[in-house]
Amino acid sequence: MIFSKSTWQHLRIPFSIFLMPVFSFAAWQSSYFSIEKYILIWIILHLFLYPASNGYNSYFDKDEGSIGGVEKPLQVSKELYFVSLLFDVIALLLGWIAFDIVFMLSLFLYGLASKAYSHKTIRLKKYPIISWLIVSFFQGFFTYFIVWIGFRIPLFSQDFDILFYQSLYQDVFFPTFWQPALFTSLLIGAAYPMTQIYQHQEDRSRGDRTLSLLLGIKGTFLFTGLGFSLATVYFFLMVENLQIFTYFILFLSPVLFFFSYWAWQVLQTPKAANFKNTMRLNMISSLMMIICFSFFMILKQIS
Fold first, then answer.
1. Which long-range contacts link 28-35 to residues 24+ away (Cβ below 8 Å)?
2. What is the pTM of this model?
């Protein structure tokens, strides 16, 4: 084993799957889909960029309680810090070699934003509204943008074509880009406070004020429920297709059932707002959205 067990644990590579719905959605929306780009972008994001962010934030958080994807985190070491930076470099190099410098710079900006979340000199985690807005934007809208331009850029071109990027710049202002990109931020914004609901005690002891801590346990459930309702209405208005919308509701019905059941449990005893139930909701919602958007992508490719 090249790295220590603790380092591998805190990179949380399996946890990156929870961020795959935005990628799957962007792949479905792309009119320039190719399986080669799909695989390359997936590898860059889920095997290197996201784990780099996970490891970097774990190093500065030094959590003793459960964290996303890890119930009993091991003690972090300096190795984790350097390995997270190594994974960042690999992601950037792959992005530059396989795509171009603009794609690489987009990955770099995402990495900077994710590091600001936990770094001791900035620590956006202390500011509930600002951190929520930044996470919603970068894990949603901006990630959609990364995947969107990845499918547009010719593979291994290495040429900076100013006319090509002028065209891309113009396309960003069309509804075909910003409407689905905004939808991803609505999804992330609705879900994100729920991922913090079991960490209130540890966040409070460190002086971090997350949005979930600000809202309280019941407030977090209400916020997430309203947020997903808004995202669902927005999805219907965006796709303007009753069949697609019906499939969307069917695929996400297990999420609604578990969320409602868990909310009822929490009303009986707040202790039910724990790590295991949070991870169950994350797993169910992520898998169902990945399956849903991948299904739409396959239908689009064969039609």
1. 28/293, 28/294, 28/296, 28/297, 28/300, 29/148, 29/180, 30/147, 30/148, 30/151, 30/152, 32/151, 32/152, 33/151, 33/297, 33/300, 33/301, 34/151
2. 0.94
